[in-house]
Amino acid sequence: MMFNVPQFIDVEDKIAGPLTAKQLFWMIGMFAAIMVVAFFFPGPVTYVIAVPIVIVFALLAFYRPGGQPLISYVVHGFFFLFRPKLLIWNRPKAAPVRTVEKRQEQKDTARTRAVSGEEIRRMAEMMDRR
Questions:
Q1: Is 49 buried (19+), middle (13-18) or exposed (0-12) by CB count in 10 A?
Q2: How far is CA 14 from the centre of its chain?
Q3: What is the pTM for the complete model shown?
Q4: Are 62 and 23 in contact, with CB atoms under 8 Å apart?
Q5: Distance between CA atoms of 71 and 25, rounded to whole angstroms?
Q6: What is the CA radius of gyration of the chain?
Q7: Above 90 in pLDDT, residue 122?
Q8: 22 in Cβ contact with 69 (< 8 Å)
Q9: What's the rounded Cα separation, in Å, for the pair 117 and 37?
Q10: Structure confidence at residue 116 as a pLDDT band (50, 70, 90)
C-alpha cells in the first residue's frame, strides 16, 4: 500500500481523558454555573438548584439523539417557536368555462371530420416524443 488512508475521521478527538473538546467545555460551563449559584444562594438551596443544572449540562454534553448533538435540537426548536410561520397557498388557475353550445359544436365536427393518414402519422410522432 503506497498511501495510508485515514480511518475514523468522523470520531472527535479525546483531549481530556474520555472527554472531547465540546464535552469538556460543557463541563467547564456546568462548573461555572454551579459556582455562580453557590455564590448567590448559600446552604442547601445551592444543592436544589445545582441538580437541574448538572442534569441539563450533562444532557447537552453527552446525549446525542439521532446522532446529532442536543444543542442543535434546542436551537432548531427555538427558531421554530420564534420565527414567523408563513404558509402561502396559491389558488390554481381556473380553466376557461365553455358553454354547452361550443361543446356540442365540437362533438359535431369531430364526428363528421375525416382524419387523413398524414395527420395520423404526425400525431403518432408527437406522441412518441413525449
A1: middle
A2: 30
A3: 0.57
A4: yes
A5: 13
A6: 35
A7: no
A8: yes
A9: 92
A10: confident
